[in-house]
Design goal:
With 463 residues, the chain is an alpha/beta fold. The chain is built from 16 helices and 16 strands. It folds into 3 domains: 69 residues, Orthogonal Bundle (Arc Repressor Mutant, subunit A), CATH 1.10.10.10; 123 residues, Aspartate Aminotransferase, domain 1 (Alpha-Beta Complex); 222 residues, 3-Layer(aba) Sandwich (Aspartate Aminotransferase, domain 2). GO terms for molecular function: DNA binding; DNA-binding transcription factor activity; pyridoxal phosphate binding; transaminase activity.
Length: 463
Amino acid sequence: MPELRGRNGPLYRAIADALSEDIDAGRLSPGTRLPTHRELAERVGVTVGTVTRAYAEAEKRGLVSGEVGRGTYVRDREVPVHMPSPVDLAHDDSPVELGINAPATPEGDPASQALRRSLEELGRTQRLTELLAYQPAAGTTAHRVAGAAWASRFGLQAKPEQVVVCAGGHHAMEVALAALTKPGDTLATEALTYPGVKVLARRFQLRLQSVAMDAQGLVPEAFEAACRVGVKLLYTQPTCHNPTGVVQPEARRRRIAEVARKYGVLVLEDDAYGLLPESRPPPLASFLPEASYFIAGVSKLLTPGLRMGYLVAPARARGERLAEEVGLASLMTTPLMAEVLARWVEDGTADELVVRQRQEVGERLALVRGLLGRELPRAALAPLYHLWLGLPEGRRSEEFVAQARRNGVSVSSAELFTAGPGPVPAAVRVCIGAPRTRAQLERGLKRLREVLDAGPEPLAAIV
């Protein structure tokens, strides 16, 4: 029972202050299970939301830790939050996942804290009833306004009527391909590309045309050669390409736009990671505004569970055909999550979360430089959660992936990203955001280092 008499300021902060004093005085020892949110709210005479915010504040200060289904406990401040002890680390032989391309969870889990605040605020308004009703397939006006504002963060100016609210970037791709192509059309993409587009191409019965890349991304001459034969749509990732991390320079983007305009090719530009670098060239879409569709990503920049994204149509298209595809598939994108994201865009929370992700990327890349630096050209260490690791001469991608897995670390084979029938590069994608802690990441990178140093395993004898 926290003592709140004589305390000033918001009630949630007063409860967190009382917790801190009781812990410092020894009245609450490490491991003590605190009352549930509802129990404490009834004791103190406040709302459940106030207690939720108080516990979040206490967790932010490192006083307590909570787990859904188990409760909230006083933590030992000698042991870092979410960090295993040195003894645990020394004996931890569990696999380390470096194959899933997910953003990290920075210390304090700021996205979860922001979500708690937003839901608490929404609970005090009359908006909830409206958000539980059917909405326009493209999203409400307010949510599309937020989408236009978010697109401007990437350097793309758009009006709200051009924006369609989608359930993540992959959904936006699916909507665009359904609306813009028909079976038998040719879909061009970089020779290495996001695997999801290969799946969607098969689903929509599209011919997938692989286009050569170099150190600056898609090669304009190779793209033009493909266009001469016939291309309906180009799917491209000019900023922070997945898997290579390449950022296409502005001059190259202008040239790609010129080729697309010359041959009447539509462009679907996917920008899932583009805000992680503090500066970037203008979107390719800004050089081809009449024929470009732009995916302004969210999940890879804020938190993966927020399955939201914005699909921006050319000004003349206005998004009606895209909205029709959303309606056919799911009637609408969940309005509650769209409202949360719109609030984050409007009040600056989204920008703050991006900054936290940039900081976390920097910390994790420092580990990469120390353990894998000699295998990576300097340009490969872009501020991203994925990197393209070229393998030593004589190593094959699939063989290396299998050997790494046997050594307790998962990475992704180049074959997964290869769009055409050509040779598979001797490289793997390494993702540094999936491990929950930096200690886990360091363990995975050390195992990867061991696999690189060991060389290929000898072939088993055939009996």
